[in-house]
Amino acid sequence: MLTNNSSSTSCVQVSRDLQQQLVLLRLSLDSPALQFPEIWLRDNCQCNVCYMQQTRSRLPHGWNYLDPTVRLLQLSWCTERKSLQIVWSDGHKSSYALSWLKERDFSHANRARYLRDSYRPEQRLWCGKEFQLIQREFLYDDLLHNDETLLHWLHHLAVYGLALVRQAPLEANVLRDLCNRVGFMRSTTYGDEWSVKAQPGASNYAYLAEPLPLHTDMPYFEYKPSITLLHTLQQSDSPGGWNLLSDAFYVAELLRQRYPGAFKVLSETPVDWADIGSEKHLKFHNIWRAPVINLDANGRYVRINHSIPQRDSHFSVPAEQVRPWYEAMALFIRLANEQACTFKTTPGDVLTFDNVRMVHGRTGYDDTDQNVRHIVGAFLDWDIAYSRWRVLKTDLGHYNK
């Protein structure tokens, strides 16, 4: 390793890797060096000219000026302030506190820790037979009044995609109060909340008593609601009305491992998702095009789209791609049903699940005046839920544990 401008004081040693243009900070002789790209250090100067503590952000004077030719001239360590000191070729001087640097070390282990503990919890995929092992129940009153319970619920929902809330009152404001504990409801073309019960002239397939196949809600939105909450007010006494849920990320992983051709088709072929209708005098025509399996730049699962009623008859792909897609989709549906867990909620239950990950449905049921099934639904967004999760972790001191 090439180094110069090396400084060592009280076991803290600073040096440079000239080839990689890194600043290295070693806290003890036997510890790995903390790594910081020099250009990143200049961009993240913490002085009052470059950074505003009140907003925790860079000041705007440098937004139109980013000079990658600036070089590090002098490097030293201040023992008294426990800070890294740098003089730059543009004449600027920077100081970085040790605590701030340790949180932002570019080592693989520290980046992985940040993504797991501060960005989002690591998801754990599960198959249908593992449902009894991963399911957790939370009391509604505890969620409203205990921050530790609220944090635990959000964490479990993020990791496993599913959690059941028990003993909620049979009142109209239950979901709103629960959403307000997190942040706020996500409104859609169907309103803030909606009632799921059999009704004549239904504008949505879910409002029928027929079996509801596995699906995700609202795939026709580019920014679709990401957490579904279903509050059971009345449950059918007929043999039907059982919930079906399957971890579609687990199903996608089965495809990736066992049927890579089908996985490629479902993760690359865009599908037209649409919803045309009206609700409370609001007419709508929503369309979004995206594959069934959505991946990020690193190949990780970020979203599943699947709803047979909302898959448009328009299929805007070359004709030769159509049959391979149907064959791959038939395999996905079969695996999703094979991996589904089943249970039946009771009045006072609030079923919560990750709508970008889980596919859900229910069995059909008998619906009469004396045998009514009534579910109230609402949505949260993960952006709001993850924000609340991070705030709770900070307020409750979990980052220091």
Automatic annotation (TrEMBL):
Protein name per the record: Gamma-butyrobetaine dioxygenase
Molecular function terms from GO: 2-oxoglutarate-dependent dioxygenase activity; metal ion binding
Annotated ranges, domain Gamma-butyrobetaine hydroxylase-like N-terminal: 30-101
Keyword Protease included in the entry's annotation: no
Necessary cofactors: Fe(2+); L-ascorbate
GO BP terms: carnitine biosynthetic process
InterPro entries in alphabetical order: AlphaKG_dependent_hydroxylases, GBBH-like_N, GBBH-like_N_sf, TauD-like_sf, TauD/TfdA-like
Species of provenance: Drosophila hydei
Residue intervals of the TauD/TfdA-like domain: 137-378
Keywords, sorted A to Z: Carnitine biosynthesis, Dioxygenase, Iron, Metal-binding, Oxidoreductase
GO cellular component terms given for this protein: mitochondrion
Family membership noted in the UniProt record: Belongs to the gamma-BBH/TMLD family.
Pathway where it operates: Amine and polyamine biosynthesis; carnitine biosynthesis
Gene: LOC111595753
